[in-house]
Write the structure tokens for this entry.
Amino acid sequence: MGRLNGESSTAEAHTIHPALQLRPTPSTLLCKRTEAGSQEGKSVPGSPYNISKNDEGFQHAVLTATDSFNNQSNDAFLFRPSAIDGAQRQIIKGIRYIAEVQISRTVCYKRETPRDLSRCDFQPDGRLQQVSPC
């Protein structure tokens, strides 16, 4: 499963999917593999560490990353997070949030305004259903 990275400072460009190529901005969406570092059970400075999926900064980074994905995708429908399997924070020249997330296509069209993802149901099982790890 891929990961969403939201950073509060500058970001490096990593690509996995063309729709995820972004320029550095606050809470930038990046897909990159990162493993938590430890040394004999002790945390290594600068390495990611697990946090609550309900952490306010983490939730903001996931929503910002999802919005960025929606703005860059050519899909007619909006996507929103359908599963969050992991949450980490890394402190390096700012705060980087790392999320193991699945995003799923909703029934809401991009052209509809306002874009309130919490009111968008997921596509039912069938031809239009799409789930993507990121």
Q: What stands out?
A: The radius of gyration is 15 Å. Helices lie at 56-72. Residues 8 and 26 are 5 Å apart (CA to CA). Residues 5-40 have pLDDT under 50 and may be disordered.
